[in-house]
Amino acid sequence: MIENVLKNENLQQAYRRVYANKGASGVDGKMVNDLLPDLQKHQKAYIQGIREGNYQPAPILGIEIPKSNGKTRLLGVPTVVDRVFQQAIQQVLQPIFEQDFQAHSYGFRPKRNAHQAMRQSLTNINQGYQYIVDIDLESFFDNVGLPILDWT
Q1: CB of 81 closer than 8 Å to CB of 39
Q2: Among 79, 104, 107, 148, which residue's Cβ finds the most Cβ atoms within 10 Å?
Q3: CB of 84 within 8 A of CB of 6?
């Protein structure tokens, strides 16, 4: 599967999406305008590192984003290079896993959004349903006890 991620066409599409999305710079301070020269210079080393299993993503830059309720939400910003490889992975994995999602699942899915979820909820209410379940997994893994696994 990693070879599908590293196909030239997939990486080109990932680069174009990251570049078009713009976004903030990560811990290295590089913006999307710095991306092409960096990839041209280091692409072989990045790809070799991924193939050999020793590519190390950079740390994530934490930025607090204000919310409408006056609180803030912590947003993790990867470097633009890491975003390219994350996008390339997503492009390969999403079609595989998308087929297993339920039709009534709206979170973080292509061509689905919160407005559609609200419209569907209203339709369900008008059809006589009395309960709507909205689950937000924010901080879930900070609060649930997970077993420690030995991966060696």
Answers
A1: yes
A2: 79
A3: no
